[in-house]
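Structure in, sequence out. Go:
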């Protein structure tokens, strides 16, 4: 049997904890609707059932995103660029290669590079080998390359990439200064006229400010809550053909 690509579950620990807490609260609400603490009777049923159901619903929505929504969101991101086929593409925080592979499918002579430090808590099965396997299963291995790179200290030359992509990565970088450094690095490795498409559920205002400070033209697209949970906004940053002169 041929293996199918597997792009994992984002924040698996969060999904697990939400499910366990939700299930525990629901069970307690059903089997321990009230109890006494000294002379006081505590009615737990309603207090436990509502947050329990809420936690379970959040876990279910995160799983729905992992198995369906992330592909819709990826296609929405990639549709924001008019593809020629010869682009040099960088996917920052590629994980198991979702954006790297999606971009590679739109290339003919171009190349799609995925970088990450592959922290286990960010994505289930988060390994470089998983990204390489997905690229092979999607028949784009010849257009993909996977590298171990920290987004704050990338080894690429200035102006190398036509398109820089990132989804649910930059918020994991500790500290506002660290995230701003990653944005400056993204701006540095972009070609004049290039585009960065950066998606996240928090901190996007920071990214907008950092890209503007780096001289990029920036807009932000609102999240689509029907597709992603948590809702993901997209920062669109374009590098002018002639970068502003540095003082």
């Amino acid at each position: 049997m041929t293996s199918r690509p597997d792009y994992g579950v984002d924040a698996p620990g969060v999904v697990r904890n939400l499910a366990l807490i939700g299930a525990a609260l629901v069970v307690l609400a059903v089997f321990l609707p009230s109890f006494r603490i000294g002379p006081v009777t505590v009615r737990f049923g309603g207090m436990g059932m509502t947050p329990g159901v809420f936690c379970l619903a959040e876990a279910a929505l995160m799983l729905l995103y992992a198995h369906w929504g992330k592909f819709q969101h990826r296609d929405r991101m990639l549709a924001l660029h008019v593809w020629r086929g010869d682009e040099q593409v960088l996917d920052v925080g590629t994980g198991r290669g979702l954006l790297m592979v999606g971009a590679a499918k739109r290339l003919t002579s171009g190349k799609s590079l995925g970088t990450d430090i592959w922290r286990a808590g960010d994505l289930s099965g988060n390994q470089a080998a998983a990204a390489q396997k997905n690229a092979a299963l999607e028949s784009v291995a010849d257009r993909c390359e996977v590298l171990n790179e920290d987004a704050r200290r990338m080894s690429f030359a200035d102006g190398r990439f036509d398109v820089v992509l990132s989804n649910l990565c930059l918020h994991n970088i500790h500290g506002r200064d660290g995230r701003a450094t990653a944005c400056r690095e993204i701006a540095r490795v972009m070609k004049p006229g290039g585009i960065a498409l950066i998606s996240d559920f928090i901190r996007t205002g920071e990214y907008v400010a950092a890209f503007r400070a780096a001289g990029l033209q920036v807009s932000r697209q609102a999240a689509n809550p029907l597709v992603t949970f948590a809702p993901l906004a997209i920062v669109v940053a374009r590098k002018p053909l002639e970068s502003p002169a540095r003082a």
